[in-house]
Design a protein that fits this description.
The structure is a homotetramer of 381-residue chains. The first copy, chain A, has 381 residues and is an alpha+beta fold. Chain A contains nine helices and eleven strands. In chain A, a hairpin with a 2-residue loop joins strand 5 (250-253) and strand 6 (256-261). The longest helix of chain A is centred in the middle third of the chain and has 30 residues, at 119-148. Bound molecules: fe (iii) ion (4 copies). One fe (iii) ion binds next to helix 5 of chain B. Chains A, B, C, D: Residues 169-318 form the Sulfatase-modifying factor enzyme-like domain.
Chain lengths: 381, 381, 381, 381
Amino acid sequence: MNLADSYKMVRRRTEDICSHLQTEDYVVQPIGDVSPPKWHIGHTTWFFETFILKPYFMGYQEYDPNYNYVFNSYYETVGARVIRTDRGNLSRPTVLDVYRYREYVDNAIYKFLGQDVSPEIEELFILGLNHEEQHQELLYYDIKYILGHNPLFPAYNPQYASPVLEEQEGWLSMPEGIYEIGHQGSDFCFDNELNRHKVYLNDYQISTKLVTNAEYLAFVDAGGYQDFRYWHAEAWDWVKTNEVKAPLYWHNVDSEWHTYTFRGLEPLHLHDSVMHISYYEAYAYASWKGMRLPTEFEWEAAASQFSWGTRWEWTESAYLPYPGFSKAPGAIGEYNGKFMVSQKVLRGASEATPPGHSRLTYRNFFHPNLRWHFTGIRLAQ
Amino acid sequence: MNLADSYKMVRRRTEDICSHLQTEDYVVQPIGDVSPPKWHIGHTTWFFETFILKPYFMGYQEYDPNYNYVFNSYYETVGARVIRTDRGNLSRPTVLDVYRYREYVDNAIYKFLGQDVSPEIEELFILGLNHEEQHQELLYYDIKYILGHNPLFPAYNPQYASPVLEEQEGWLSMPEGIYEIGHQGSDFCFDNELNRHKVYLNDYQISTKLVTNAEYLAFVDAGGYQDFRYWHAEAWDWVKTNEVKAPLYWHNVDSEWHTYTFRGLEPLHLHDSVMHISYYEAYAYASWKGMRLPTEFEWEAAASQFSWGTRWEWTESAYLPYPGFSKAPGAIGEYNGKFMVSQKVLRGASEATPPGHSRLTYRNFFHPNLRWHFTGIRLAQ
Amino acid sequence: MNLADSYKMVRRRTEDICSHLQTEDYVVQPIGDVSPPKWHIGHTTWFFETFILKPYFMGYQEYDPNYNYVFNSYYETVGARVIRTDRGNLSRPTVLDVYRYREYVDNAIYKFLGQDVSPEIEELFILGLNHEEQHQELLYYDIKYILGHNPLFPAYNPQYASPVLEEQEGWLSMPEGIYEIGHQGSDFCFDNELNRHKVYLNDYQISTKLVTNAEYLAFVDAGGYQDFRYWHAEAWDWVKTNEVKAPLYWHNVDSEWHTYTFRGLEPLHLHDSVMHISYYEAYAYASWKGMRLPTEFEWEAAASQFSWGTRWEWTESAYLPYPGFSKAPGAIGEYNGKFMVSQKVLRGASEATPPGHSRLTYRNFFHPNLRWHFTGIRLAQ
Amino acid sequence: MNLADSYKMVRRRTEDICSHLQTEDYVVQPIGDVSPPKWHIGHTTWFFETFILKPYFMGYQEYDPNYNYVFNSYYETVGARVIRTDRGNLSRPTVLDVYRYREYVDNAIYKFLGQDVSPEIEELFILGLNHEEQHQELLYYDIKYILGHNPLFPAYNPQYASPVLEEQEGWLSMPEGIYEIGHQGSDFCFDNELNRHKVYLNDYQISTKLVTNAEYLAFVDAGGYQDFRYWHAEAWDWVKTNEVKAPLYWHNVDSEWHTYTFRGLEPLHLHDSVMHISYYEAYAYASWKGMRLPTEFEWEAAASQFSWGTRWEWTESAYLPYPGFSKAPGAIGEYNGKFMVSQKVLRGASEATPPGHSRLTYRNFFHPNLRWHFTGIRLAQ
Ligand SMILES: [Fe+3]
Ligand SMILES: [Fe+3]
Ligand SMILES: [Fe+3]
Ligand SMILES: [Fe+3]
């Protein structure tokens, strides 16, 4: 596929995700981690305007200088930014304004792509499209949070179908030795997947099946949320401060567990993989089972031998640079490196991940207390 | 005017105020004191449904039981309520949903008013309409806050014309003696205006003109915000914690003072009455002038002899019950009495007050640190 | 008594109050409102050094310039101050250091009083002694809080005897009319007791007896803390946020109510006047009884006809300036005026008030949520 | 040395550290991370009483059941605990009380050690003594914080002599390959040093000298604290929120850098190793130099070839379990494992570490924002 086609396809997918929304759904920000959907629409557009059109497209006329202030995220290099928690207070630009901005930039991009572009710019495009795919996934998280925390529990899409993973129950035994970890080859990868390097792993076993709702419910029913022994000290504070008693989106209605899905509130599907648990909970569950979570290296070494892709799988690994990691210069260099402290790595992909976006070496990362993203548990021992 | 006509007129005025809004403007809640406009639209409707239709209109079918949860405000009697600061997180019901709810209730009301209604119910109607007028005023405050805190400073209505008060500069001398304070007669008044009672006042003088922007600017330029001597202790903490340097909506752009108006950002109009100052600032300004604010009794005794009505005027009085004050039974009784601590009384009316809503005995009240409402200063000595 | 004798007597009383303390008790500050006893010892000393010795005693050598920073309280005029909540973090100056400072200043004062002093300075002395008496009362409050919030519930003084008020149960009827309020004569009073002025009062009745623990317990047992109808809106938030269920220092031990006293934890004395309730609770209790609290004017007009003096009595009045009130110039002027917002007036005196310190026109004031001071309830109707 | 002698020596060392304190210094807790010295005295005693005397010494009479509540720390297994930030509010038990408790327990221990003890109990003793040594180090941190944040900057000990490390400037080159990491042999180690296991390391270079104050000052002078590019995202928030401009205890007095030492405030010693920097600052400094921090594995593999022991050295490694790590059962098992999230590993030892307490495989850990402990920087590349 040529660049213009790729661009069109990725951009359209973002709009498709939003096609189920009401105007009002685009605007709100119930918690700091969630961004209003219209912000994602504008921010992904701002990325192409800022990093491609403004520096490289001669004669390009910026759409509105104020938009840099509104749609910048964490790129300190590029100027002042709206404090993150303020995004949900902005009624303007309106959704229509933002789509107009999007169309304006898209048109300029298509004009720009009518010319030949250098490999360096092509690389920026590929980064921009991967960036947009990451925001597509965030859109799913944020939309679910916005609708799933509304007292009316509206459906996002009554026809939404969750993908089902073909899994085999069992344990995969991996032998002690040296393994190679990290991206190889010339395909696109994020900077955090490099350098490819050797790690030494002891013997280990890793489950070929994700933990199910039924299995996790046994932990809930056994009083797992009331027994500090399974939890990290900071996790136990989190449980008590937030009165956590079950995964996010679980609701006990008349003594029956329900869960909010994109189709609305439904009885808990016991055979589904558990979803929306924090690292703290994943660890506590594993602890209660007398097992543990795999490291990201154990996961990568084994993952070609089991099914994955519907849940981001918490690992025991902290998000740290690989040997030889170095930041790219400039704003692009802020992409990943600045987050390499206090976060945990997740591996795999989720049902919200765009097709083809993830890979065996992909490193996702979040703080250990978060759970509005589509997470799950795979055990190791 | 008959009740149905009054009802129609008041209800339509609410919608007129909102006619300048974009859908997105209806949804956001930048601070806890501000409510999303769609909440006002629904809440004023909920009031008629809850206090008139449900108890008195036989066979009335509640529109949606969940709406009680969403549009209740501070009426503890009537059931659980959405935590006030959460209102801005709710994208549903949508603006269209809320207007449908409004239309549904209006139609029921018109049907109900086709019958004769008892004087007791008529009283409830009058309370409901006065309640709605109060929310009309709040709508102006909240809309101004939402648009005036947007980095794009959008106009609410480019044709908005501020009323001008015909004032005479001077001091009115009032003699020592007994004065009667509080509402008299059989017209509608709020419970907090009763009982009418005697107060003893010393000689005093009260200004016949509100403080202007030019006069207030002199205080700003004289370093009034940097000198603790003019401020209450808690006010000085407020100034320092919030780095307050001027009234709300004042912006120093390239060394020239501007102010956000309903028409957008404009250079400060020096002859206008100062607006959007807290009680703390009103007091500090008076202190700096070597004067003071009037009490609410001084204001009421003199107000028929000067012009008022474009700014709510902070008084020195705390909001307390009059002799013989008693709460009405039930939810209606929660109307005013439960706020009679820690607030200051404001007298008069503002340019946002619906015509005919206020009167000489009207007691408005707010916490002393607030200033998103349309406040001003009248001096006494 | 001459000035030196008065000085000696007042100063010694402060030290007597502290004579029951361990060194460690002098140091801690469990909440912001409580000051460490050693701070009171130093601060009252600093007052005489700062306002008398340094300006008026030729050749006086300041003890330690750093102490101004440590022992200043809220006198912005006199320089930077230690943030109030930090006082409990300072282990130095030690208790011994502070008593040395106190002795040094006392010696200088006695030397100074060997000379004739002007009436102006005598007035400063009288203010300083009244100031110290106020801190004596605060010392009792703060010591009780420090020991009463210690899990070991240590006694302050096992021999401590609470004074008992001779009261007659009944209602005093006061006729409608004009009353004179405020201090009269040339004796010392605080600036907030002036000017004496006329107020107009309606007929009212005021109880000749304080509410007892038994009576208040009936409110607790009737579910008063669970029923929002008796509470102001902000009070109800306070009850729920702080899970308030009874007066401060009440502990339900094995289903029997106990209360911490200066002698340690004891079963609740049912005949004692209720103590350690906030204004919120006083109001809620009165509301539950279908009555109200008196205003400070009602109290002052009637108080010569009933017994008072063991509890500070919450009034319905906000703490506001009397007609003609004006601040003294300079730091002394910060004494009272800057607190005249958001506080409620208490009248009378408590068992912790130094003998002779209070009077019929004395106006004490605290925020409505506080209750570590020795408060009580007198009803009116 | 026999167990009783070891016990006596370690216990006495704790008391020696405190011998320079005034009673008041034992009591305060200026921030949550700092504990009052008397708490350390009591808590280390409580450890022996709780884990040895009560379960194993027949007929032992607990000193005071309330003390369990006061001196417990984070051992959830053993019952309720005083909220950590409340420790500084407790004036009782007094310092003398705590020393009496200590003497009582010591006497019981000596009696107990008159009998033969099983190897299992001996192990508990060794753990208890190591625990006490850790608190000795914390005592130094906390005392420095308490005195170093007092506006009088009192000396802890005017004769305090900082140890000097004999270091050679240069880079040690380490070859790629498999290294063994973790404790070996039968000597005491903490559970977090096990299991010994293989890691694969790439070529690396590690400095043989710690970064000096002079070198770090160059970073400060170059505007390192004003340039976000050197900092993690969360670190940059920390710098801005806390207005961090230099290491802890640095004070710019009349344009000359001073630092608080145990001897009081002194001009910065340029040749000393930099101290009291957070991980954030260590990382930012390394970033500015175009280098990085070593991992804990790189440190352990190389540390026998350079001098260390005066500063805890931040590593790039997160504090995670080694392969095969498992918690001990019961309260002892809470020792380390529950902290294995969100913390960074430090290696080496500091001038506050008791002699013989640390070793090559010792893993210290703290949150990345903390710096009241005695930290330093060693670079790698
Ligand atoms: Fe982004
Ligand atoms: Fe309302
Ligand atoms: Fe004072
Ligand atoms: Fe410990």
